[in-house]
Amino acid sequence: MTPWLPLRTGSLTRRFAITAAILAAVAVLLVAAVSFWLVKRQHIAAVALLQQGEAAFHARTVGNTLHTLAARMDEVADSPILATALVDSAGRETYLAPFLNGLRQINGIPVQVLFTDFEGKPIAGNGLERFDSEQLAWLRARIEQGDKSAAIFERPGGAELVGATLLRYSRTNTPEGALVYKLRLHDLRPDPASTLTWKRQAPAAAGGSRLDLPVKVPHQFDHLGLRLHVNASASGQALKRPWSQYSLIGGIAALLAVLVFLLGSRFSHGLTQDLRKLEQFAAKLGEEGIGAHRAELAGSSETVTLARSINLMLDRLQLQQAHLQQEHRRKDEFLAMLAHELRNPLAPISSAAQLLRMLFAHEPRVREASEVIGRQVRHMTHLVDDLLDVSRVTRGLVTIDKTAVELGAVVREAVEQIVPVIKARGHSLTLDLAPHPLSVSGGRTRLIQVAANVLNNAAKYTPEGGKLHVTLAQDGDRAVLRVRDNGIGIAPDLLPVVFDLFTQAQRTPDRAQGGLGLGLALVKKVVELHDGTVEAHSGGPGQGSTFTIRLPLLHTAAGVAVPAATAAGPVQARRILVVDDNVDAARTLALVLETAGHSVTVEHSAQAALHQAAHTPFDVILLDIGLPDMSGHALAGALRALPHGAGAVLVAVSGYGQEEDRRRSREAGFAAHLVKPVQADELTGTIGQLGVGQPGALMA
């Protein structure tokens, strides 16, 4: 999940609030960062200033000590008493003692002092003197040159500063001796972390917090080039980081962020109020569908423009919806008319084929030709029925008259319908049905149609010699019908849409599978009307497929009895009137009935039928519903009003075969409704059952 997903998918109010919070946080963070930077810069400047001040103080301390030392030595050297004492060889130590006792320390720093004669030979010292030969040789050189000076000598115990001041006799102004003094540079350091350096010495290692300052010294020390190196880190640590200021800045920043977020949330709630109204309208529109409601034209100009656009779109959608509904009605009317017009020519073809099979049963070629014609007629009829069924089912125009149905009997009857296809392709069929009855609430005919379509689909897409396996079992409170084959399988991209309209697997060049891709779509819709589910599974091309149908079981105390077939009794000759404006259909139907032993009269208009029925009594009258001069329903009422027509059994024979058509036939008084093309067995069987005296049972 990306961090920007809430900004892309959340509500507009939330997105505004989050955006405001982000902008506020960025602004506050920038202000806080600048504040932290400024405080840090001030802290660094203060530390640097403190370090420089402390280093300068230490440098002045060293310089002051050396000035004091030089001044004291000059004061002693300028004393006339001291020069006189050096001239007088007797009792010189007595004269020098007061001076030596006062020259032991300068500003607390130990000083070694030594008086010498004009040849540089020691006379007396302050008891601390430790001058080596090199230093005494340097002293004699200074006496010979007649100047006062200083030098630094590096020794294992540390560098030593040695200075010399000449003692001159006041009368002759000649040097009568020298005052030499020495101190350790280490003792001059004002701080243990500092270091004194001089010319001709390697500079001290530089560091991030080390300061290098020159030391102001008396003129006799200038040539030494003394410098003080101070480690200022200790003084920097004395000035602590301003954490209190940092905390104050952070607290103010957090407070500002919260304040800006609350204000942003409040403003965003107000700014999006109009949009939220549109959102509520859209949600209501999604629940109730397109109707007369329209979005309110209120709020900001952008919202009003958006609402006006939505309303215009809804107006167009409503017009398109009305247009589509009208087109659907026209399509249904067209399909019904198409079915009627297709069935009309199929009816005489089917009747003629059956008549040939009956009359020339001993002629193999004629019988074979009639069987071919009959199979193709049934195939065409099946396509027409599927096309009409799928149109009505998808629009919710089909209702199921649910009764208790035993699924085992449904599966066996569906298998009987598919047996010719299975035999033709040489398939091996295995039935594995539950040992006990499994009853569901549904329409028997529709459930047989579902099972037959699934079986037919498996047979079509399984190569010759393949295997089909049908199982019916109970799984909890549901009955499970599973049809498995080892056929061509279903590709992964086809599996999710296998139950959609007109969806089919890849065709072979010879289109051996046939069909329009309607069967599985019908299966899904009809199963859903029975509160069930259907699923398809396949391992891929060449792996076969499995279709699983689950239906809720009907909880009954006993199994549902399978209706027993009515035993065919001896055919009783009937007087039959056939009324159909299609001459071929009427004539072939009459020939089939006459071959069965009935007496048949044919008429092609309603008026001719009324005239015939007024003078001749008939046992059965077969009426086409779509007559040109009068509808079959109206003709049925007129026939009932005739003296000879009141006792006749009326049978509708029509190309209109939907549930609505059957209902209208029942209301018009028809005992049966047969859909063209009518099979000879179905026709004669229906007439035979009507002859028993229970005509109304066939229309239940």
UniProtKB/TrEMBL annotation:
The keyword Transferase applies. InterPro entries: CheY-like_superfamily (IPR011006), HAMP_dom (IPR003660), HATPase_C_sf (IPR036890), HATPase_dom (IPR003594), His_kinase_dom (IPR005467), HisK_dim/P_dom (IPR003661), HisK_dim/P_sf (IPR036097), Sig_transdc_His_kin-like_C (IPR004358). The lineage of its organism: Bacteria, Pseudomonadati, Pseudomonadota, Betaproteobacteria, Burkholderiales. The keyword Transmembrane applies. It comes from Massilia jejuensis. This is histidine kinase. GO terms for molecular function: ATP binding. Residues 269-322 form the HAMP domain. Residues 337-555 form the Histidine kinase domain. PANTHER family: HYBRID SIGNAL TRANSDUCTION HISTIDINE KINASE C, TWO-COMPONENT HISTIDINE KINASE. The modification 4-aspartylphosphate is found at residue 624. Residues 575-691 form the Response regulatory domain. Its main location: membrane. It catalyses: ATP + protein L-histidine = ADP + protein N-phospho-L-histidine. Its EC number is 2.7.13.3. It is found in: Membrane. The chain crosses the membrane at residues 16-39, 246-267.
